[in-house]
Design brief:
Layout: H1 11-28, H2 32-38, H3 43-51, H4 69-81, H5 89-103, H6 106-117, E1 123-126, E2 142-146, E3 149-160, E4 167-173, E5 183-189, E6 195-200, E7 211-222, E8 226-227, H7 233-269, E9 271-272, E10 275-276, H8 281-309, H9 315-339, H10 350-358, H11 368-377
Parallel strand pairs: 1-4
Antiparallel strand pairs: 2-3, 3-7, 4-5, 5-8, 6-7, 9-10
The structure holds flavin-adenine dinucleotide (FAD).
Residues 91, 125-128, 133-134, 158-160, 203, 206, 211, 360, 363-364, 366-367, 369-370, 373 line the site of flavin-adenine dinucleotide.
Family: Belongs to the acyl-CoA dehydrogenase family.
Domain Acyl-CoA dehydrogenase/oxidase N-terminal: 11-120
GO molecular function, one term: flavin adenine dinucleotide binding
Length: 379
């Protein structure tokens, strides 16, 4: 952003940004519209991203690329800048892989993480069920111990990377106690008997992203695939969700920045009543307001990033960043679309796609109402 330094990023982060930009230009931009038509990104792209060192950025070698969350943030920003919304990289690298790294046994880490870093194995996490979204404690998927296996029964929905995933962390009830107690995390691998996938869900946005229903009918999951301790799943989930919320905030700020710049360019080039649209005071005031709000968001999100790199980001701050970021992104992208007039409503104009894709930011990762609940608890 003009005139703004970002001390949270080091030189190695900025060098990584240059590398990511080249990859985006070469391997993503030319193909993204096709992926949106197909509703999925080919697994070959995941392999290329693995070869380029773009997956599991924040985990140590050999589980990842030996970077930190700053590298993850750079990748998230660069994808948001071009609205490459078809890619499910952050669920894979910044949600699933960190769970495996934090709570997995040495054997589990060796089996799954290096393959995930290479893009040969794609990760998903399945919490949400048709009857339980915000209220994770209400999940009904159950896993009953039977010798060396768990017998898993239930249904999950809205699962990102659901079709391509070779490994899914499934949130299931292993105990009979209600609520948070008795919730465990089970790693279910492709080919597990009784594990099937439903249709890929059609969405109004994120059209290239693979979002699926998953079914477990007496699925036999080896007991060795339990992640961490039995009954501790809810605690693990609560611990890791802040990072997911920060990702949404980082993406929102980068998206606003990119589309503000494009809107400035567009309005400077478009004439109405003998002057450019940019020259109308209404336009300049809208864009000035957007810049002022974005600058505040950026400072806050970068502060959250710095805290997170020191492992000091609280759940409350992460919730504030997600709430403010996604709300602001929705509001400002709507203003930017308006300034594009009818062209903004045309499919070939990128602002329309970004506007629709932004909508889910207020819903997933915990809805913005739930974010307010989290903030309200600390009042
Ligand atoms: C594109 C997409 C990708 C997703 N990817 C995944 C994934 O990979 N894995 C996964 O597990 N899930 C995923 N989800 C699910 C997502 O996390 C849930 O949709 C979200 O948590 C909300 O749950 P719900 O849809 O059941 O809504 P509900 O919980 O039914 O909420 C409906 C409305 O009620 C409000 N509400 C609920 N509780 C409260 C409350 N206590 N106070 C005030 N208002 C409340 C909500 O804010 C919302 O407005 C994805 C969703 C989408 C759309």
């Amino acid at each position: 952003m003009d005139g703004m330094t970002r001390p949270v990023f080091r030189d190695d982060h900025e060098q990584f940004r240059v590398q990511v930009r080249r990859f985006v230009e070469r391997e993503i931009k030319p193909f993204h519209a096709g992926w949106e038509e197909q509703g999925i990104v080919p697994v070959s792209l995941w392999r290329k991203a693995g070869e380029e060192g773009l997956l599991n950025c924040m985990l140590p070698v050999p589980y990842g690329q030996g970077g930190d969350f700053g590298h993850s943030a750079v990748l998230i920003e660069e994808l948001a800048r071009v609205n490459a919304s078809a890619l499910g990289f952050s669920v894979h690298s910044e949600v699933v892989a960190p769970y495996l790294h934090a709570y997995g046994s040495e054997d589990q880490k060796r089996r799954w993480l290096p393959a995930m870093a290479r893009g040969e194995l794609i990760g998903a996490i399945a919490m949400t069920e048709p009857g339980a979204g915000s209220d994770v404690k209400a999940i009904r998927t159950s896993a009953r111990r039977d010798g060396d296996h768990f017998i898993l029964n239930g249904q999950k929905t809205f699962i990102s990377n659901g079709h391509n995933a070779g490994i899914v962390i499934v949130v299931a009830r292993t105990g009979t106690e209600p609520g948070a107690k008795g919730i465990s995390l089970l790693c279910v691998e492709e080919g597990t008997p009784g594990f099937t996938r439903g249709k890929r869900l059609k969405k109004i946005g994120l059209r290239g992203q693979d979002t699926a229903e998953l079914f477990f009918e007496n699925a036999r999951v080896p007991a060795a695939n339990l992640l961490g301790e039995e009954g501790q799943g809810f605690k693990y989930l609560m611990h890791e969700l802040s990072q997911e919320r920060l990702i949404i905030a980082v993406r929102a700020a980068a998206s606003i920045e990119a589309f503000l710049a494009r809107t400035i360019d567009y309005t400077r080039g478009r004439k109405a009543f003998g002057q450019t649209v940019f020259d109308y005071q209404n336009t300049r005031f809208k864009l000035a307001e957007a810049k002022a709000q974005l600058t505040m968001l950026r400072v806050f999100v970068d502060d959250c990033l710095a805290l997170h790199l020191r492992r000091e980001l609280s759940a409350e701050r992460a919730a504030m960043a997600k709430l403010n970021g996604s709300d602001m992104q929705n509001r400002l992208l709507d203003e930017f679309l308006q300034l594009h007039g009818g062209y903004g409503f045309m499919s070939e104009c990128e602002i329309g796609g970004a506007w629709i894709d932004a909508r889910v930011g207020r819903i997933y990762g915990g809805t913005n109402e739930i974010m307010k609940e989290i903030v309200a608890r600390g009042l």
